[in-house]
Every structure is written in C-alpha cells, then in structure tokens.
C-alpha cells in the first residue's frame, strides 16, 4: 500500500520534505452520495443484510 506522501511525490513531483498530510475526521452526516448522507446509506445497507 502506498503512503499519501509517496503518491504526492510520484504524481506531482513534490519534495517529500515539504509534504504535509492532514487527516480530519468528518461525521458521516456530512458526506453523501446522490443526495443521501453516508449515515443513511449505512443504515439502508444494514437493513438489506439477511
């Protein structure tokens, strides 16, 4: 598995000394797909399991 830094170095030609990766957790209510929040999609998927 590639690290985020490796991808930026390879794809953008960045110097790894100056690459900073910030991971910020975002609540699933603030992510969505086709107008449906990730929370709702997860609940729907749980309901479809046998």
Features:
50 residues; mainly alpha; 2 helices; elongated
Task: Spell out the blueprint of helices and strands.
Layout: H1 4-12, E1 32-33, E2 36-37, H2 38-48
Antiparallel strand pairs: 1-2
Oligomer: single chain
Structural class by sheet pairing and helices: mainly alpha
Order of helices and strands: HEEH
Q: How many helix segments? A: 2
Strand tally, please?
A: 2
Order of strands, widest sheet: 1-2
* Amount of beta strand: 5-15%
Overall pLDDT confidence: 90
Q: Indicate the low-confidence ranges by residue numbers.
A: none
What is the molecular shape?
elongated
Termini Cα gap: 33 Å
| Main sheet record | 2 strands, antiparallel
Helix content: 40-55%
Radius of gyration: 17 Å
Notes on the protein architecture:
The protein has a two-stranded antiparallel sheet. The chain is elongated and about 45 Å long. The protein has helices at residues 4-12, 38-48; strands at residues 32-33, 36-37. With 50 residues, it is mainly α. The mean pLDDT is 90.
In brief:
The protein is mostly helical. About 40% of the residues lie in helices and about 10% in strands. It has helices spanning about 5-10, 40-50, and strands at about 30-35, 35.
